[in-house]
Amino acid sequence: MADGTLGDSVIASSRRILIGWGLGVVVGAPVGLLIRQIRIVRQLLEPYTEFFRFIPPVAFVTLAVVWLGIGETSKVVLIFYMAVFIVTLNTSAGVMAVDESKLRAAAGLGAGRGQILRRVVLPSTVPYIPTDARPAMGNSFPCAAPDRVACTAQVRS
């Protein structure tokens, strides 16, 4: 502790968590919006999100190290993987929770799909995004440990 290694490790892990979590939020929120708004996107992405969300990131530690190396990229990708599905699914749930009468009213007043998305769906979904981001951040912390163990074991062998 006196030599500063603990502080350096905390800063490095925090940086990884913030980058992976931030990318998960930045990617997951728009994907969650698009999955529920555009049918072809839903048909393409929903089967994959429903499949991969149940696979824990720890299962991908070895693959991440083999594919991406023992550097920062593999660690950030694992944290991103954990965060993106939480945000995507909860944002998608927020889009589904938009009051149908608001959508019909906007359409009845002549709003197109883009206007409905920007003026009705997005404002109604915005409260879900920070609510999604909190559990994604909490789940990102345990993700920072297994990659470190795997990378350390890889270097020693």
Short descriptors:
7 helices, 157 residues, disordered C terminus, mainly alpha, MetI-like fold
Structure description:
With 157 residues, the chain is mainly α. Helix 1 (5-37) packs parallel to helix 4, helix 3 packs across helix 4 (72-96) and helix 4 packs antiparallel against helix 7. The two termini are 26 Å apart. It is elongated and about 65 Å long. It has one domain (5-152): MetI-like fold, CATH 1.10.3720. The protein contains 7 helices and no strands.
In short:
Keywords: Cell membrane, Membrane, Transmembrane, Transmembrane helix, Transport. The protein is mainly alpha-helical and 157 residues long. The protein has helices at residues 5-37, 39-52, 61-68, 72-96, 100-108, 113-125, 128-156.
Q: Please name the fourth-level CATH homologous superfamily.
A: MetI-like
The run of helices and strands is HHHHHHH
Biggest beta-sheet profile: none
Low-confidence stretches: 151-157
List the domain count as a whole number.
1
What oligomeric state do the depicted chains represent? single chain
Radius of gyration: 19 Å
Intertermini distance? 26 Å
Instruction: Report the portion of residues in β strands.
Output: under 5%
Going by CATH, the architecture would be Orthogonal Bundle
User: What is the CATH level 1 assignment?
Assistant: Mainly Alpha
In DSSP terms (H or I, runs of 4 or more residues), the helix count works out at: 7
CATH topology: MetI-like fold
Helix content: over 70%
The structural class is: mainly alpha
Query: Average pLDDT, to the nearest integer?
Result: 82
Shape: elongated
Protein name: ABC transmembrane type-1 domain-containing protein
InterPro entries: MetI-like (IPR000515), MetI-like_sf (IPR035906)
Membrane topology: Multi-pass membrane protein
Family: Belongs to the binding-protein-dependent transport system permease family.
